[in-house]
Amino acid sequence: MENIGSRTLMSPPGERSFPTLSEPPRLLIDRSLGRAPNDWELFHDFWLVSDRMKGLLKAVDREGVAFLKCESRSLGRKPAPDYWLCDVIRVLDAIDEEKSRGEILDDGTESRRYSPMGGPSLVFKEEIVGLAHIFRPRFWGDIICDDAMKDACKAAGMRGIRFRDAAG
Asked: Is 151 helix (H, G, I), strand (E, B) or coil?
């Protein structure tokens, strides 16, 4: 599962979506190869999610995510569970730079970003976030979700996903 000429599976430059692939991503699940994926795993620039996690993400915030089905198989007779690549496609310019704390790394272009060092404390503009439960803030590498998404993941017992407070 590689982009041609690249060792990382990433969105096309300047957009959030899946790259054009000549075939679906393949996932071989077998104990001899290690543990099966959790409900959520970081996979290159995307997430690898179980069918359960896909359903939860769609139920909580369908407009914020996109999915690409993987071809899952097992070496044994037991059918392999379904897994999906997931991309958080909603990008919001929602960081309130005046109220947030943290170093902004500005190279003079549109690609300025917050430094992850020193534990920045981010404050978001509620009028821009609106009803979104999950999004990518412009200029920030992490994905942000609200308590509704976090609580839904915890209530469903989703494995693999961790949360930390963006406010520091």
From this structure: helix
Residue 124 counted as domain residue: yes
C-alpha triplet 109, 133, 145: angle, nearest 5°: 65
**Torsion 22-57-165-39 (CA) sign:** negative
Residue 30's identity, in one-letter code, is: D
pLDDT tens by residue, 37-85: 999 999 888 999 999 999 999 999 999 999 999 999 988 778 899 999 9
End-to-end CA distance of the chain: 36
- The count of domains in the chain is 2
> Which structural domain range is residue 147 located in?
91-156
d(CA 124, CA 117): 19
**Total-model pTM:** 0.83
30-39, 65-74, 98-107, 131-140: least confident range? 98-107
